[in-house]
């Protein structure tokens, strides 16, 4: 039987953590872009569009990410359409993150007093100009803490991608734990690595918040 | 909420329509011969059948069998890590051609997938610490039992254990073993070989064999209706049995003979 040293465990986990990082980045970028699009569509305010986006958000907030991954990977393949693991994970994470981000950001925009919209309109700014120069800069400041809170959740949520064959941090931890029979040590290392990934994100958020709030002190 | 339900139904409807238009695909064996690769689902958390080495590459009895089948098919093997809960969906959706993952045969599974001949022996049992009193299945009443969701022992246990048994199900063998080793459950239902390794690594734990759940050899899983592929796999396994290869694998990984393998 092979013996894993602590270095072997850490080295293998670090290699597997690459997938966790890549999956997180897909979710951040994809979810951010689609979320922003949904936000703008929703703010432009046509009732049927709003209802469709509302349903989209409800659907993806109301179902577990695990099921979304499972259905996208296995469910669609049952109908004879071949989905690769990358595509399924990318699409599922993007849909999931965009639904949450669209809702978080909508709340931030709605927190901006109505008068800001009215005042900017009275200056003859178009909808795009209102968003770009008046509303979004103010909303951004409120949006940082909840957005980062959600992104940290997403990093940890990528562990679910192991169900469709990704050997990321959590899955690699499980595999190693079952050869070494030292779950406490292995899962301890796994937890530590997640912390190493998540903490800098939170730290950066704090710096960002300080920068954005500079006018308020 | 109502509108989201409606849109969900609409999505399902579209998917069903697509499915009808896509009923006939080529056979799996043709696909393997043409692409010269065969995708095989293997376990990575179930020593000694499938586990990882220092480089996280899978190894074990199931991996040896998978490699053997691939080389006899004249194809390059692509190993896909699967767990108990997702190996059958992998087969049904043809994301893998074969599953060599300590798969036991039962009626429910035979309805949705096909099986080859058996390729290795496998025993499942109930294990607990020495001081835990388990003499018969009725003693499990009121005790917590760790088991892997969707694995054969889960189903066997449901049949023989009394209603008062507190069954804790985990997603993979790693979590099941870890829960028992950490004392989260009093009893574990798993394979004899898995426990053998656990007590080898943790002699202090004092794990003891209590009851035999079932002697259920391993079969290769094949998607329903792929008879050409099943025929080829059976030929390969019969030849490997005749020339002693299967016995060699059993000796290498299980330290015992392959014994009587059912067809």
Offer a quick outline of the entry:
The complex is a heterodimer of chains A (217) and B (263). Chain A has 217 residues and is mainly α.
As an assembly, this protein is heterodimer
Overall pLDDT of chain A? 91
CATH architecture of the largest domain in chain B: 3-Layer(aba) Sandwich
Question: How many domains, in number, for the residues of chain A?
Answer: 1
What does this protein look like?
The complex is a heterodimer of chains A (217) and B (263). By secondary structure, chain A is an all-alpha fold. Chain A has a single domain, classed as MetI-like fold. Chain A contains eight helices and no strands. The longest helix of chain A has 38 residues. The mean pLDDT of chain A is 91. Chain B has a five-stranded mixed beta sheet. A five-stranded mixed beta sheet of chain B has the order 9-8-10-7-11. Chain B has a two-stranded antiparallel ribbon with strand order 2-3. Chain B is globular, with a radius of gyration of 20 Å. Chain B folds into two domains: 134 residues, D-Maltodextrin-Binding Protein, domain 2 (3-Layer(aba) Sandwich), CATH 3.40.190; 92 residues, 3-Layer(aba) Sandwich (D-Maltodextrin-Binding Protein, domain 2), CATH 3.40.190. Chain B has 263 residues and is α/β, with parallel strands linked by helices. Classes of the chains: A mainly alpha (217), B alpha/beta (263). At the A-B interface, helix 1, helix 2, helix 3, helix 7 and helix 8 of A face helix 1, strand 2, strand 4, helix 4 and helix 7 of B.
